[in-house]
Amino acid sequence: MQFVLTFLGSRRADGQMGGAQAVGEEFTVAQRKPNHDSINVRLCRIPVLYPPGSAFVAGVLVGILQYAIVMVAVLVADILIWSLKLDSIAKVPFFIKGVSCAWAMYNLVFFYYEARQCPTLKERLEQIHAENKFLAVKMIIFFTFFQQVLLGTVLNDWLHFFDQFAGLADLSGKQVAEGAQSFLLCVEMFFFSLWHVQAYPVDEFNKLDAAASLSAAISKESRVDLKNAVTEAIAAGLEDLGSTEKQADEWRRLLDLAREMLDHKFP
Q1: Residues 177-188: tens digit of each pLDDT
Q2: Which of 111, 129, 137, 172 is the most buried (most CB within 10 A)?
């Protein structure tokens, strides 16, 4: 969800915000038609449920964002089950969460696949390092989800592994399993936070916004806009980019062109 909102909120080359409508227009311009029966991804076939254009973007957005609503409902259900001691249905919210997560993943993978086929959207995906952002966010969900399945369901409920620790500090086997999950989660969140710092650097969107402002100012040929855009670009560090950074050459070219226009066209 965070990855999709980041992508839809990134700026276009003309300096305007992207948004779902703009992304839908890009699909239309590129004549991408995601209304075929299915798409082939390696060895599997993924069914396609949405028409092309803005309806496609709206469909995948609803499919992805429903997970947030389901999670609130699951939380409420867990509280009610705990307060009413309905242990017989305690696992139901957990599996509902799994279905919702799978549906969100279908929509996310489908959106990513179709965006990669559109040249303009593919470039935007590369600019925001989409794969790294996706993994940084989704691995928290899926790694902890399957860890809970392994420790809570397989090892505890099925194999009764934690029963051998029953009686330790007056804890049951189930309580030991829950404690192990909580301890591992605390440790893992530290490493996930380091990953997020790397995947979502604080200066990333300053550079993207500065480059978009340069492009827009050059197109408008306005002295005030050019001067402000150059100042913004320098503050964002566009002139100090390393050669290995994506879009570095293009951004430096825009900055040099803007400076040249200020020196010669608006002396």
Answers
A1: 788 888 888 999
A2: 111
